[in-house]
Automatic annotation (TrEMBL):
A GO MF label: DNA binding
InterPro entries: LysR_HTH_N (IPR000847), LysR_subst-bd (IPR005119), WH-like_DNA-bd_sf (IPR036388), WH_DNA-bd_sf (IPR036390)
UniProt keyword list: DNA-binding, Transcription, Transcription regulation
Membrane-spanning residues: none
Protein name: LysR family transcriptional regulator
Residue span, HTH lysR-type domain: 1-58
Source organism of the structure: Psychrobacter sanguinis
Pfam name, any one: LysR_substrate
Length: 320
């Protein structure tokens, strides 16, 4: 079965239009039609319902499209990785979540460039969840995120745990306090900002809504999970799309939130950052790359990170 026939069908099926597929593939419509007809003859099934407008796939066509979509993406990824092995790149594309950029990442990159002066580094703001797809697609070479992933194609290391601090408006009654217990924040409006959530187990069946709302193991929102572990779920919450917006609302006196310690310099003239009594209220920092091949600069990048941690007395988990 020819790859050209598969890609012709994939383009038409994905775009649901012969004319758009013509524009994308640079093939003529008669050529596309012929390739798809040859594919149907190879399979002995009809993939496209040619009697409906707009274009529709048959049931067999939908099934076939879903399967070859996975195969073709894997093939593209394999080709890209093969090319990288043969021609090691001189550019390192790093994906990161914003909270990491406020920490040591700028120092890490600066030190890495000193070690590898010919290396270009490009940064891309991308959520922990989306970093996995971006690594497989070759859009990034390394990702810095806050959540663990379980994927056989991804090599992920826990670098360290960073403690959460409470971000409070300067007018908040606890703005002058230290070692705050989360139960003291229950009556404050908590601003939630995580787009990636924790995995939760599938409920057996008869679990009540109340149990789902109070059992920490069933709460996927990371900040609410921390509160639930102390039986201190807040009475009021607001959700926003990112951590910068959350801190903006805190500065405006619209609520409080919890952020990694490295962000306590953000809007510090309007926000009081206070330590929590809970030593295990932490946000992990992970670094991830493809299992194979890793970028040639990956080992040097890790060495730089560990050196900076050593200099600053930061507790971390060393792998190399």
């Amino acid at each position: 079965m020819q790859l050209k026939r598969l890609t012709a069908f994939h383009s038409v099926a994905r775009l649901k239009s012969f004319s758009e597929a013509v524009s994308q593939t640079q093939l003529s419509q008669p050529t596309l039609s012929r390739l798809i007809k040859q594919l149907e003859d190879d399979l002995g099934v009809i993939l496209i319902d040619r009697y409906h407008r707009p274009l529709q796939l048959t049931e067999a066509g939908r099934f076939f499209y879903e399967k070859i979509d996975i195969i073709l993406k894997e093939l593209d990824s394999t080709i890209s990785l093969t090319q990288k092995i043969a021609h090691p790149p001189d550019t390192l594309n790093i994906g990161f979540v914003p909270s990491v950029l406020y920490g040591l990442l700028p120092t890490v990159i600066s030190r890495l460039k000193q070690r590898l002066p010919n290396l270009e580094v490009h940064l891309k703001d991308i959520s922990s969840f989306k970093q996995i797809g971006a690594l497989k697609a070759g859009e990034i070479d390394v990702g810095f995120g806050r959540f663990a992933h379980n994927d056989e194609h991804i090599y992920q290391l826990l670098l360290r745990h960073e403690r959460y601090v409470a971000a409070l408006p300067n007018t908040h009654e606890l703005a002058g306090s230290h070692d705050i217990h989360l139960s003291q924040l229950q009556n404050s409006r908590v601003i939630l900002y995580h787009q990636t959530h924790l995995p939760v187990p599938q409920l057996a069946s008869a679990s009540t809504t109340e149990a789902q709302n109070t059992d920490p193991s069933l709460i996927s929102e990371p900040l609410l999970h921390l509160f639930a572990k102390r039986s201190a779920l807040p009475h009021h919450t607001t959700s926003v799309s990112d951590i910068q917006l959350a801190l903006g609302l805190v500065a405006a006196g619209e609520g409080i939130t919890l952020v990694p310690d490295s962000l306590k310099s953000v809007r510090s003239e309007q926000i009081s950052y206070r330590t929590l009594i809970h030593e295990d209220a932490t946000s992990p920092i992970y670094i991830c790359s493809l299992t194979t091949p890793t970028h040639p600069a990956f080992t040097t990048l890790l060495e730089v990170i560990y050196a900076i941690y050593e200099e600053r007395g930061i507790t971390y988990r060393r792998v190399i």
